[in-house]
Amino acid sequence: MSDERLRLTYDRLLALRAEVTTDRQNCPSVETMLAILRREGTDGPRVLMLDHVMGCPFCQPEFELLRTVGRASVAETRPE
Amino acid sequence: MSRPSDQVSPALEAIVARFAERVRYIGVQHGLTGSDVEDLVQEVRLRLWKALESGEKILAAPASYIHRTAVSAALDLLRRRRARRETPARLSRPSGLARLGEVASADRMVEELELQEQVGRAIDTLIPARRGVVRMYLAGYSREEIADVLGWTEPKTRNLLYRGLADLREKLTAMGIGPRAL
Prior knowledge:
Chain A is mainly α. Chain A has four helices and no strands.
């Protein structure tokens, strides 16, 4: 199976999960997501947290919003 | 005589506009929908205006102020949505058979659903160190983006990703899902 096909299938899988559950009991806090983006803490827990975030249809868009803000802010603070 | 806020408002609007442009540009790359981005920009604008009214010297350090304000605004936006139990919008990434230009029959849809479940199960059985990286890749991250988020070197990222994808394909093959699946 090609990478592209795997990605499409995974995307569909997350869409399906979003339809069948709204349970967020195991989701990390938004502060934890920010800490991941700031590379705080050790590798192991961060990878595990990202494993959840990337497999969760609710955490993923939240993480992308924070990542977007971080990247846009970095661009803003970079000297011209 | 004009008020201080009248004098700085065009400059502040220019800062917000430039920031909004960057957020929109990067947001689209990250698959965010327009409403998420616009909510964030609006939140940042409101905060900056409030700060301006309270006399804070935004224009003395606009870049660092924008950064702090934007991060804080994003956190509050997400917290509020969670408190209201709002379901985040799906990322606008290409997905599914519709993109392939096919009209799915019932049988085909069942096969597709089974495939999704099998891929999900196969990913769950990967070793944790590789699983997160594989999920990031399948979620649309490039190798460079994965390395950037994790703070890893390119060789380390490549190694874990390739091993993870190889493991995944091996597990899928064991499940009877070969290279030509669907």
